[in-house]
Amino acid sequence: MPSSDAPAPEIFKPLDPAPRLLMGPGPVNVYPSVLHAMATPMLGQFDPQFTAYMNEVMVLYRQVFQTKNQWTLLINGTARAGIEACLTSMITPGDKVLVLNFGRFGHLLTEISERCGATVVTLDTAWGTVFEADQVRDAIKQHRPQIVATVHGDTSTTMAQPLAEIGAACREFDALLYVDATATLGGMEIDVDGWQLDAVTSGLQKCLSGPPGSSPITINQRIVDVVMRRKHIEEGIRPAGYQAADGQRIQSNYFDLPMLLDYWGPQRLNHHTESTSMLYAARECARVILSQGLQTTFARHKQASTALRAGLRAMGLELYGDENHRMDNVTGVHIPSAVDSDKVRAEMLVDFGIEIGTSFGSLHGVIWRIGTMGYVCSKPNILRCISALEAALRRNGYVAPPGAAVDAVYGVYDGKK
Ligand SMILES: Cc1ncc(COP(=O)(O)O)c(C=O)c1O
Fold first, then answer.
1. Each residue's pLDDT tens digit, 380-404
2. CATH number of the domain where residue 298 is located
3. Count of domains for the chain
4. What pTM, to 2 d.p., does this model score?
5. What is the whole-number distance in angstroms between the Cα of residue 243 and the centre of ligand 1?
6. Which of 328, 137, 91, 119 is nearest to 230 (CA)?
7. What's the mean pLDDT in 22-47?
């Protein structure tokens, strides 16, 4: 090996990152017990102990998703793995998909649907706003899509699309409803069965406070009926008497829902090797949240974002987006024109050990996004973040009324606002 390619001695040091408080839009700090769970010894994927853990994961996530759906399971990969598994399996090339596009992740749903061979129509609205239920119903009536796809909380704009009436509109016109709840599951109410959401997917690294790399999903019988019409089991594992379904084979093997259901179901038909440590992590995330209580967890997120916003306003900063439709777990705030946005973020990170988020596309350099998700969403962390931001802004030429922001945060936690 030429000497210039020799690894620097640092590479042989163990990992030792500086501590960070992750208050961006995700990933966020992981519950300590989740890290602990990930150090649990490996098991073989068909060891009865491991398959029992898989079943427990299904039971736990049914409660997290507030659903009776039998098929509530994990897709290995980040949140978009769950999105791709659903859309790839649900969309037969040529299907029409209506995407409710109110941010970057609406564009992602459009892109993935197009890759699946769908004819995509979008309903668009300005970033920072969401849709009225009537607008959505009218669009479904006009376009008659097989599938409606939407994000619940789009972290790019920090807006949450109300979903309670959209499921009924989809049923009225016989469309399936897919929802990306990556950033809201475990942080805001999502009543999968009550709101008639047919397929919902998430990720671990936001309000569930796990590491990125596992995507909990839930699908109801309407979705199962559609994807089963495309069931083709790969050669080499086909059970006796197997007959392929008539529908077009799903183009992805990894994200083939019928094969995944056979793997997660009583048949335990071999597919991929389940990501053992991520399953342990996902199980622990759900266990922690459910032992705290779902409604308690939602209330904690609401209180933390209310306190953060009170602090930001007390600094004279302007919040971003439609105030009636903000997510409870990430806040957009306009960057004061006097300051260098990257410098303030860098000082927050290096001097205070706190990460806040930048933004995408037209919002880059316009707003910061501050997350109050999962383990991070607590009074001490809101106070730390607000105090540090006040100091970093002052060093960079934006002077807020001293102490007003911290007082405003205390005001919310003391119940005075
Ligand atoms: C709403 C939403 N959907 C999808 C994703 C994609 O998630 P991942 O990066 O885990 O694939 C994100 C990530 O930020 C998100 O916020």
1. 999 999 999 999 999 999 999 999 9
2. 3.90.1150.10
3. 2
4. 0.97
5. 37
6. 91
7. 97
